[in-house]
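If you are new to this repository, start here. Below is one unmodified record pulled from the training split, so you can see the exact layout before writing a loader.
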Amino acid sequence: MFQSNVSILGKFLETQFHDSVIKYIGFGWSSIVFFVDNMVVRFPRQNTEDYVFEEYICRKLQTKTPFEIPQVKVFLDALYPYAMHVRIEGYEWDMVMNNTRIHFAKDCALFLSQIHNISYDSTIRERPQDSRLEIKDLEKQFSHRIDDHLLQTLCGKFERINPNSTSGKLAFIHADIRKNNMIFKKSGQLNGVFDWCNSGMGEIEQEFVKIYQDFGGVFLGDIIKEYELLTNNTVDINRVYDLSFIDRVRSLYWANNTMGLIKLCQELETP
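And here is the target side for that same chain:
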């Protein structure tokens, strides 16, 4: 069914952009993505409201940071609604990673300090919330596939963290800072950040979760150090670890990934 949808959307693009080079790129939680010449075209997998907000916030961000932000345009009246923007020129992480360590922590910290400084007003929404997940959901899905002791250890930590609560300072956050959403210069310096459809007011520590998962603890520590120097804010790194744990549990639950969840449970058992 999904492959059929990709095919249908590809044919739709062919009718919209004659004589263009169209390439299917992949999909994420919220979008199905194509390249059309030098443009990025995304179709929503969830709803179009996130794209509408993204179009608005990207315009606002143009004046808030020197790092490149895409100028997103949303087409709601099309047969299949979509968002489109010009591709940010540059290099992916894997192409410059050997050059990034010198620049990445400072660039990333500076970028985050700039967007977190955006003043809250009625035009800025709260960050879209993850689907609610309860202990009973975990137990129902995995009780017959995971050792009871391991499952209870996982559920115990999940409950102690209280994934449906928010603590700490709130700010405007991107909420999905990861390798695939960043573009770099050849030197390794950060050039731009895209995919703002999950952004909104949220817990500052949430901003560092994907950074930790994608770049590791050493980079996380470097970025937090630089960020705290720039902002005089204190980032609770243990809260980042807890939110990362919750994020991993959610991802494994929705993917119905028993082996991944067993591995996570075993990590909790390791001193």
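Two things worth knowing about this chain: The two ends are 44 Å apart (CA to CA). Strands lie at 22-27, 31-36, 39-44, 73-75, 82-86, 170-173, 182-184, 190-193, 200-203.
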